[in-house]
């Protein structure tokens, strides 16, 4: 079977897998938690692993957004959706810009941190880019404490094209810090159909390890219950740089 990545060769299909309209509630929660108390003009926001810019699509009303991602194909998609945002290629573990932001968001791209070293490097990236007094919100999909196998079927059409996708998320070795997500896409354009496999290796750490690493980096950490409550998302880590 053909193999390809939804973040690279198949990036043009990403909006069918993860439509922007699915992000309204998430973005509203992130906006509320990241909004600075004091109002001194439009605050700046840096997003790590910003993908298609689906969160930023809503957040840009309240924040001046700088969006960063390791994939230039995803940034191109985001630039088309959010032409007024700044877009920069960058790995969240090593990014180093020469400025600081009022707020930093790292959402579901955090799952691509697969070792403790990756986590700590990313915490240092956030520290480097957050102004003293600024807030950062980390929203990983899963914690090791509450992970369980899940599979789901995605269906979408955009007029010309149709996608069906089986997503299967499982952990073959619970003793390591990784789990797997296999996607099998059926991609149809007119009467042409392709079947493509896309395997993602993702990271799994306890909530306690996230919290400890953030505190060791210097942040004040608050665990916020995810009020949206969909069963696949865990608590949020809201941090402040003193
Ligand atoms: C699920 S998408 C993010 C979608 C995003 N929340 C949105 O609102 O559109 C995950 C993103 O993480 C990015 N990514 C994976 N590893 C990364 C890394 N080390 N540094 C930066 N981005 C990374 C991928 O390229 C992908 O665009």
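Q: What amino acid sequence fits the structure above?
A:
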């Amino acid at each position: 079977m053909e193999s390809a990545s939804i973040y690279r060769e198949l990036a043009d299909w990403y909006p069918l897998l993860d439509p922007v309209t699915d992000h309204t509630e998430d973005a509203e929660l992130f906006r509320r938690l990241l909004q600075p108390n004091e109002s001194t003009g439009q605050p700046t926001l840096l997003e790590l692993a910003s993908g298609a810019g689906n969160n930023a699509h809503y957040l840009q009303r309240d924040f001046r957004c700088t969006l960063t991602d390791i994939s230039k194909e995803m940034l191109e998609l985001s630039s088309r959706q959010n032409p007024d945002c700044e877009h920069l290629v960058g790995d969240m573990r090593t990014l180093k810009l020469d400025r600081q932001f009022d707020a930093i968001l790292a959402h579901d791209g955090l799952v691509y941190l697969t070792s403790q070293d990756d986590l700590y490097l990313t915490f240092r990236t956030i520290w480097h880019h957050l102004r003293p007094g600024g807030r950062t919100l980390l929203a990983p999909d899963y914690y090791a404490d509450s992970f369980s196998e899940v599979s789901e079927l995605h269906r979408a059409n955009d007029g010309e094209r149709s996608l069906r996708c089986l997503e299967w998320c499982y952990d073959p070795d619970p003793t390591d810090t990784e789990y797997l997500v296999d996607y099998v896409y059926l991609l149809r354009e007119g009467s042409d159909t392709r079947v493509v496999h896309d395997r993602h290796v993702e990271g799994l750490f306890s909530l306690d390890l996230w919290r400890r690493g953030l505190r060791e980096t210097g942040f004040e950490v608050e665990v916020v219950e995810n009020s949206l409550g969909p069963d696949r998302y865990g608590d949020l880590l809201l941090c402040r740089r003193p």
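Q: And what stands out in the fold?
A: DSSP finds six helices and twelve strands in the chain.
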